Amino acid sequence: MTPYEFRQTVRRGEFSGNTAGICEGYIQANLAIMPLKYANDFQKFCDANPKPCPVLAVSEPGSPALPTLGKDIDVRTDVPGFFIYRDGRFVGEERSLAHLWQNDFVVFAIGCSYSFEYILLRAGLPIRHLELGCGVPAYDTNFPNVPAGLFGGNLVVSMRPFKAADAIRAIEITSRHPNVHGSPVHFGDPAEIGIKDLNKADYSDRSEVRAGEFPVFWACGITPQVAIISARLPLGIGHAPGHMLVTDIPLSTIVSE
Amino acid sequence: MTPYEFRQTVRRGEFSGNTAGICEGYIQANLAIMPLKYANDFQKFCDANPKPCPVLAVSEPGSPALPTLGKDIDVRTDVPGFFIYRDGRFVGEERSLAHLWQNDFVVFAIGCSYSFEYILLRAGLPIRHLELGCGVPAYDTNFPNVPAGLFGGNLVVSMRPFKAADAIRAIEITSRHPNVHGSPVHFGDPAEIGIKDLNKADYSDRSEVRAGEFPVFWACGITPQVAIISARLPLGIGHAPGHMLVTDIPLSTIVSE
After folding, report:
1. A183 inside 8 A of chain B by CB
2. Cross-strand bridge partners of residue B245
3. pLDDT per residue over A151-160, tens digit each?
4. A164 touches chain B (CB under 8 A)
């Protein structure tokens, strides 16, 4: 199935699941959607925090299209799930934005770690949560984002465990891909970045770090949603975790090896 | 002083010390010198072990010149110290090769970590052994080199301690410089690569890893001398540790940032 065909399937309401493994070889994107009056500050926030928020594309105000990312994209219907935030609080999940759409909405598409996981797998590196068949464990940290306007909050990180030699390779590889979160922000002692218990992820699933492995932490695409919460926007929207926009852009355009 | 002027100083016998910090901003090189009949296998050994043995230049048989690395280089006299090996044993140090030179000698110039230390310092990363004013600690490992002909032995590594975030940055940076040993081969538990006691370096000086730091291990330019020993050549020569060939090649030609 092509990314276009997949998005049409979502648009028809025939798919509402996790997009992990969907249309392998194409870039997937996190989303952040908000009224135009906040968009300029949010762009500044992303520019100031490029590791968690690498911007891939921004829509015209009021437009649900992202023409540089794919044919006939309508983010209102082509993404399998959304998280809705009002006044800084999560108020529910939606499968479509048709009824919530505002003519002043701006859509930010942000790089997603599914892309670099594909690159790591191609390099022969094991990805624990994929082996376990669960989502990547993600954690709030005590590391403050660089604020911009109303947007702030702390960095959220995702964690993948590796032995030292594999961690070195993973750092090498991801450092070449700043559009999908780039190199890690930390490895080793979780307490150093304010994570109390590695076994209790703040977002998503179980974690498992085995003897001889280091937990390696990358900036996570949940961070922009934390920023939306911290800004207490009257209405802000993100993709539901794991429910990404699948773009027409081949990963080969960003994979240099 | 230009590298040419420095080499002339060495040639006149006026300098026989460590070349750390000499002619900053220019590539320095490790040396391996041996009879032509072994040179082909040694080249294969270097090709098979690019991290410890990144070849920068090879001389014509019998020639002590390396024209691609600098003006009027005569390695016999322009390098401040040599280690001499006979039949697989270290037999002494020399300040000149004038009396030992053979018309069948081939000179290999090999990338040196002094270059990447300069790059790391420029990036604002602290280098412990430079702060302490001593040589980099280096260790024999249990990690076998890929053998070629008579040449084999185990990898030698150098160690620099870093906090996690700095280690990530050091890995990112050195991975872009394969000509000067590239990315590390290991970090964390020394026992995993056969190092029993981090405080007892097999080569050079003291080591000091502080709380919250990881020892990070890079392939080391001592490895080719271990390979010469392992091959039991009737006569093989290396630079004395820390006593490098200073070339005319600016580091800016390999530093991308």
Report:
1. yes
2. B29
3. 999 999 999 9
4. yes
* Contact (CB, 8 A) for B168 and A181: no
Q: What angle do CA A112, B124, B165 make, to 5 degrees?
A: 40
pLDDT of residue B255: 59
CB contact under 8 A, A164 and B212: no
Residues in chain B within 8 Å Cβ distance of A187: 164, 167-168
Single-letter amino acid, residue B154 = N
Asked if residue A41 lies in contact with residue A150, where contact means CB atoms within 8 angstroms, the answer is yes
Rounded to an integer, the average pLDDT of A228-255 is: 91
- Identify the helix (H) or strand (E) that includes residue B78: helix B75-78
With an 8 Å Cβ cutoff, is B123 touching chain A? no
**C-alpha torsion angle, residues A182, A187, A190, A195 (rounded to 10):** 0
User: How many angstroms separate the CA atoms of B42 and B45, rounded?
Assistant: 5
CB atoms within 10 A of CB A64: 19
Q: Extract long-range pairs of A90-94: CB within 8 Å, 24+ residues apart.
A: A90/A229, A93/A240
Rounded CA-CA distance A191/A195 in Å is 5
Task: Say whether A186 and B167 touch across the interface (CB within 8 A).
Answer: no
Enumerate the H helices of B93-187 as residue ranges.
113-122, 128-132, 164-175
Instruction: Give mean pLDDT, residues B122-130.
Output: 91
Q: Which amino acid is at B28?
A: Q
**Which one-letter amino acid corresponds to residue A68?**
T
**Of A40, A19, A12, residue with least CA distance to A239:** A19
